[in-house]
Amino acid sequence: MKKHLTLLAAALLLTLSAYAQADKAKFYIEGQLATPTKSGQPWKLYNIRSQGISFTDNDTIYGHDTDKGVQLVFDHAATTHPQGFDCGMKFYRWQNNSGRWQVDSEVEDAQAAFSQQKVMSIMLVLDCSSSIGKSDFVKLKNAAKQFIDVIIDKSSDGNVHIGIVGFNSMRNTRTFDLRPLTKESRKDMFQFIDTLQLNNRTAFYYAINKGLDNIKGYVAKLKIDKGKKYDGNYVIAFTDGYDNDSFDPKIGKAAEGTEHRYFQHVNQRILKEKIGGAPIESYVLAIRGNDVDRNNTEFERVLSSLSHNASGDKFYSLQNFDKLQAAFEEIGTNLINKWQSIYCYIPRGYDGRVRWTIECGDVARKFFMGVNGSVGKLSYPKTDLINRDCVMLGVGLDMTFPVTDLISVGGYVELNASRGIGFAFTPTVAFSFPNNSAIMLGIGYRGADHFVSNGFLMRAAYKLTNPWYITVSYSVGHGNTFMVGAGYTIFGRKIE
Hints:
Layout: H1 2-23, E1 28-34, E2 43-51, E3 53-54, E4 61-66, E5 69-74, E6 78-79, E7 89-95, E8 100-103, E9 111-114, E10 118-127, H2 134-152, E11 160-167, E12 174-180, H3 183-195, H4 204-221, E13 229-239, E14 247-248, E15 252-253, H5 261-272, E16 274-275, E17 278-287, H6 297-304, E18 315-318, H7 324-339, E19 340-346, E20 352-358, E21 368-379, E22 390-402, E23 407-417, E24 421-432, E25 438-448, E26 453-463, E27 468-477, E28 480-491
Parallel strand pairs: 10-11, 10-13, 13-17, 17-18
Antiparallel strand pairs: 1-2, 1-20, 2-4, 3-6, 4-5, 5-19, 7-8, 7-20, 9-19, 11-12, 14-15, 16-17, 21-22, 21-28, 22-23, 23-24, 24-25, 25-26, 26-27, 27-28
Helix pairs in contact: 2-3, 2-7, 4-5
């Protein structure tokens, strides 16, 4: 009877924690679901709102039937959650009778994935002027390669098209024409980057203009498969100095400042031109080279004016080349986030409020229960002639109840055996961490060997990020015991 009551209480606590989890979620998408009333009509999600998750603004999302249930897609998804969408999103239904959210564990977790329906072009524009220096030039090349690796890690099927412009003077500007990013073309891109050489002059505007022309000519001939859409044009440009070499008879010669015609020409292309029906977004990274005065505010004003994207200007003013790779990685990650879509699933035939929540990384109040086994040694004082040292085995149960988002309290009970049966117990305090791990500490009592050995018990346990946890305990009294063990989480696997 006691066993059944314990399991019932644990199940109740777990259910209540599931309710609270959705209610207190900091990262979620919520909406009102309408099931079609006639055959052939789509499912419809409306009154959509979210927190900590952004996506393409839509008043209504339409769903279609799949083998996993009804699928809804939120396009251009991004989140401020530190772990992103890596752990999936749980599905909850609103229960009108209880006025709470109820998790539906049988529904496939929502997942964010790189959208395979989007086609886009990226042009890397890399300064190869002599002012960079050989060692820093290697850092620039490695940063550009790392950017490509960040992108290919999410999409290697050729939907992303990448080209490269390496420039110093107009005469020495070299172009790697756009092509689909695959594992094979990645090698060619890396080889091109490796062959870039330093030289004098800086034709920055000319290089950007040439890169845009390359995208325009390439996209005009690009055949896009049915079901896919051309989604964007991106320029990621780096320079360490002012343009001092760009010239076009129709435009004029580049000069410092934003009022000159060559600058205005490139700037207006970025702001207003559309290629393949999609706008141009640009990211500019800059390091003040030897030819730029450190107090020259005009330098940043000019270059930041060439940086435009959907989330506002994105200009990177870097102190040195050691920061360059991290900046390229950040841009790559931002682009990946822009191209992500969240694929959510709902059961067929359900009407009402629904919610998907990210459930990892954050600490939340959650009941915890774990079982464990341990092995160790029971030692008696040398003056004790009746009892001798012996092996001791133990099985135990850990249980904690949340008090705050970070702290839980509970206890540990143990049944042990050496030459005789005994037991142990400790009150326990648990401290949870954002990475799904936790540490449990307890001080209590252990009796062993028919309670011939009674002792003051100290115990610690560390819960790993997976369901397992490890334990160590030591008791001191008439006989001393030292034990180590391992446990498995039954309830509360996610500290979330």
